[in-house]
Design a protein that fits this description.
heterotrimer, A alpha/beta (239), B mainly alpha (351), C mainly alpha (351), A: Rossmann fold, 6-stranded mixed sheet, 4-stranded antiparallel sheet, globular, B: mainly alpha, two-stranded antiparallel ribbon, 70% helix, 1% strand
């Protein structure tokens, strides 16, 4: 599905990612974890064309997308949900959803709007409400619903459960599982909330200081005594 | 060009260079070092000129009346202004000591009034973002001018006011002597600023400009720094305003406009290099010479310019600003030496 | 019969609303206060003057072809009054020219500069440069238009056999008499200005809240990076906002000379009232800009009129009023009337 090869990237002169190589399999949830400043968020931004790439390759479904601008990457079926500012706060829920289908024809937009709302029925109650009046969990759902309108095959989430109450965080993670199971979407999930995320993951990678330290099955990571103590322990107590 | 004309041309250039150095060096502290958008720079210059027109003659007349025992009698100062000032001037022409004393007192008073006005004018927006502060200072400068123009006791209203000639004692060398004094004062101001800005104070100002949050997290009170800088900058500009008024011998509120005393100083600072004091001298030099030349050869230029040469000044101003911003925003002499070797990284073309 | 002071307030607030609305909209897109806003609207004023000049010349030519004598000729010229077509023409041309200049300012100056990494202060000084550029252009145009009027008058004089004077000034001009309607007993502007302002407000809110384009514009203003990832061409949206805003400015400007004295630098002072209105409205709210426009107009006309007649304040200080309002806003409600928490305010009053 998505393959990253020997990626070196960062912001201007500041290199964040060093020789990162990872593979994200189709219709699976891949979780990327790591301590603060390890480059997890930068990895997603880099895939989406928002940082400076010094060298390396990003391949999506056999297409090289390494140096494509964000809107081209978006049109290929990749959605990126940043941690914050992922909805228009001053627009209503309906306007937000319609903005997500900005380039679609009217009929297609209506159809996708309906199917997207099918996925998050509770949003139907708030259609005329401004997005800033929604709760944190509802906002994440709106953001996911907005990406769904564009029918992505790959969705990348940057810490979707940060700053959410545990119960709401659980709900958000449940809907991510539903995305995989019901819509067959490939998921890349960057999380601080490592244990909860690893429970739903099919695959796990650990980034430290911009380098891949572990790449394999979630249970191997959870059971690895050294890495588990050093990184999972630390990260989960920080949350 | 005859020698006499060349000499007066040179004198005029030196005079404007002195005045503008004082204005622009203080603007450089505010805008170049600290990133404070003082679009009301003329406020300081006007404050100094108005202090001179309001205060100097009163003190001079008081001294005249006390020392000569022949009080000057008048009923309306604004209307009889020329007569009174010429009486004072006659007396002053024989008293260089009193003239220099008056000069010193006028300069000190201008500094004080300038500092107070700078503080008051920036107060409403001192805690707000740069754009609000810029708009506020521009507007407040206009208030000072409107008051100076309409409240006659300050600067005679629409007619303007004469100010005592504190350089008359030099006789036929009056202009040379006054330019010499002005250039000397400009040099002192320059050295004081250069000195002051190379201490940790200057580094704090730069740090505030580059990263306000980081500086305030280090416990520096940015608002206090802003207040200090704007007061000091306006006081310094007031010094220039007072010297300008004393040199030209009169004050009229319409002479203190945004173009001459705010925007031109900005261009001079930007051309030389914001944050670089040597750049200030360069920018002042270039534009004072250019503008004085245009002004002197106005009649000759008229044959080549298809419109009134007066508007050439505005055109030159606007085109220079855009050209500097587009081609060399850091100015001719940038603040820090630029890196000549680019880091060997592949640029991401798409972002 | 409407009292003149009410007429004045109605017209002035209509014009101010159109101007502060545009200023606010451009500020919301590029986050830079546009100091050239008012001067661009004065370009609209010169559109109206040009329409008048051309109409008068063709009227004069027709009259002379039908061999009018001096007396009937001047009766005809003096009785000239704008027809509905004239109003439509100068408002439409004012809008068009204003939006063209606005787009040029955004595309040729502000956008390239922000792509080069210019900061807010540099962008502000760039808008000042645009202002100066337009100011010099307007001045040159005023000169040229006068030359044209004089040459045409001479041409017509030679046909007529008597001295033809069209009675047109290109500086300090006011076109009140061409707008007077006998049936209304007052100026048509008293009807036109508020109706135009209201219609344009309705049209603008329809576009912004009911059309896909408008929603995309609001989205681009709030979160440009998210909007662009959704496939919105943010640059196009901002261009649209600049075209609309300065189109409104040009249109408002085309109405100004019907009631107020205009010269090329009228914008220099007027811009402060517009800024005051926008800041009072919170600089980030279109509804706030409308409220701010009405409030500033009320402060400047009825409130100030009361103050000047009851407290003896000279009418020359009217300029100070918007600046005072601005300073007080920044001190006490820096986020403007739109930022006030009205619910909380009301509950406090009730208690």
């Amino acid at each position: 599905m998505l393959k990253v090869e020997n990626l070196n990237a960062g912001y201007g002169k500041l290199q964040v990612l060093h020789e990162v190589s990872l593979f994200f399999p189709e219709r699976k949830i891949s979780v990327v974890i790591g301590p603060n400043g390890s480059g997890k968020s930068t990895l997603l931004k880099t895939i989406f064309g928002l940082t400076k790439i010094y060298s390396g390759k990003i391949i999506f479904e056999n297409n090289d997308i390494t140096f494509l601008p964000p809107h081209k990457i978006a049109s290929m079926g990749i959605a990126y949900l940043p941690q914050t500012n992922n909805v228009f706060e001053n627009l209503t829920v309906e306007e937000n959803l319609r903005m997500a289908g900005y380039n679609l024809s009217k009929e297609e937009l209506e159809a996708r709007l309906a199917s997207s709302l099918e996925f998050f029925p509770q949003l139907k109650l708030y259609m005329k409400r401004k997005a800033r009046q929604l709760s944190g969990g509802e906002r994440q759902m709106l953001a996911i619903a907005m990406s769904l309108i564009r029918k992505p095959r790959l969705m990348m989430f940057d810490e979707p459960t940060a700053a959410l109450a545990p119960k709401i965080a659980h709900q958000v993670l449940r809907s991510i599982v539903k995305l995989r199971d019901e819509l067959g979407i490939t998921i890349i999930l960057v999380e601080q909330n490592a244990r909860a995320a690893l429970e739903i993951a099919d695959k796990a990678s650990l980034l430290v200081s911009g380098r891949v330290i572990f790449d394999g099955l979630p249970k191997d990571l959870l059971e690895n005594p050294e890495l588990g103590r050093m990184y999972l322990g630390v990260t989960s107590s920080q949350v | 060009m005859p020698v006499e004309q060349a000499y007066s041309f040179l004198l005029s250039i030196l005079f404007y260079m002195g005045i503008y150095t004082i204005v622009v060096i203080s603007l450089n502290m505010e805008a170049g070092y600290m990133g404070l958008p003082n679009f009301g720079k003329m406020m300081g210059v006007a404050a100094g000129a108005f202090t001179t027109s309001f205060f100097t003659w009163r003190l001079a007349m008081y001294l005249h009346n006390r020392l000569t025992g022949e009080p000057i009698v008048y009923s309306d100062y604004v209307r009889e202004n020329a007569m009174i000032v010429s009486r004072i001037n006659e007396w002053l022409s024989a008293s260089p000591g009193i003239s220099l004393f008056l000069l010193l007192v006028t300069l000190i008073a201008s500094l004080a009034i300038g500092a107070v006005i700078g503080y008051i004018a920036s107060y409403p927006a001192i805690r707000l973002r740069e754009d609000y502060l810029g708009i506020t200072l521009l507007a407040m400068a206009e208030v000072i001018r409107v008051i100076g123009y309409n409240y006659k006791p300050i600067a005679g209203g629409t007619l303007g006011m004469q100010v005592p000639d504190l350089f008359r004692w030099a006789g036929q060398h009056r202009f040379s002597a006054s330019v010499l004094i002005i250039v000397a004062i400009a040099l002192i101001v320059y050295l004081v600023y250069q000195r002051m800005l190379s201490t940790p104070f200057g580094r704090v100002l730069r740090a505030i400009r580059d990263d306000e949050e980081a500086v305030s997290s280090l416990g520096r009170d940015i608002v206090a720094y802003r207040k200090r800088v704007i007061s000091a900058g306006t006081a310094t500009a007031a010094l220039a305003g007072a010297l300008y008024a004393l040199y030209t011998g009169s004050v009229i509120a319409t002479a203190y406009d945004r173009v001459t005393w705010t925007f031109w100083p900005w261009v001079m600072m930007m051309l030389g290099g914001a944050g670089n004091n040597v750049g200030v001298l360069l920018g002042v030099g270039v534009f004072v010479i250019a503008r004085t030349t245009i002004y002197t050869y106005k009649n000759m230029l008229e044959a080549y310019v298809p419109f009134n040469v007066v508007w050439l000044d505005y055109l030159l101003l606007s085109v220079t600003i855009i050209a500097i911003l587009m081609l060399r925003p850091q100015g001719i002499l940038p603040e820090k030496p630029i890196r000549t070797v680019k880091p060997l990284i592949r640029q991401n073309e798409s972002t | 019969m409407i009292p003149p002071i009410v007429e004045d307030t109605i017209v002035y607030s209509s014009v101010l609303i159109l101007l502060s609305l545009g200023l606010t909209l451009t500020y919301m897109t590029t986050k830079v206060p546009n100091f050239a806003h008012a001067t661009i609207s004065i370009v609209g004023s010169y559109v109206t003057l040009t329409v008048l000049v051309l109409s008068l010349i063709s009227l004069a030519r027709e009259a002379l072809i039908s061999q009018a004598d001096s007396q009937s000729f001047y009766r005809l010229i003096k009785s000239f009054s704008f027809a509905p077509l004239h109003y439509a023409l100068f408002m439409a041309l004012g809008f068009l020219l204003g939006s063209l200049i606005g787009v040029a300012q955004y595309k040729l100056v502000l956008k390239p500069l922000s792509q080069r990494g210019a900061n807010v202060v540099q962008l502000m000084i760039a808008t000042i440069a645009v202002d100066m550029f337009l100011l010099s252009m307007l001045n040159i145009y005023a000169d040229k238009l006068l030359e044209y009027v004089v040459s045409k008058a001479n041409e017509l004089s030679s046909i007529a056999g008597f001295k033809v004077n069209l009675g047109v000034q290109t500086r300090d001009f006011i076109l009140y008499s061409y707008d007077y309607s006998k049936t209304l007993g007052t100026q048509r502007l008293v009807m036109i200005a508020p109706v135009m302002a209201a219609d344009l407000l309705v049209a603008l809110s329809f576009v912004l809240y009911r059309t896909k384009l408008g929603v995309a514009l609001r989205a681009s203003i709030e979160n440009p990076s998210l909007a662009s990832t959704l496939g919105v061409n943010v640059d196009k949206m901002y261009t649209l906002a600049w075209a609309l805003s300065l189109g409104l400015a040009g249109l408002a400007g085309s109405l100004i000379p019907l009631k107020y004295l205009v010269n090329p630098s009228t914008g220099q002072l007027f811009v402060l009232s517009i800024f005051a209105a926008s800041i009072l409205g919170g600089l980030n709210s279109l509804a706030g800009a409308v409220i701010g426009g009405v409030l500033i107009a009320c402060f400047e006309i009825p409130v100030f009129n009361y103050l000047s007649s009851h407290l003896g304040i000279s009418s020359a200080y009217r300029t100070v009023i918007p600046l005072l309002a601005m300073a007080l806003t920044l001190l006490f409600i820096p986020r403007g009337v739109a930022g006030l928490n009205w619910k909380k305010l009301f509950s406090r009053v009730r208690r």
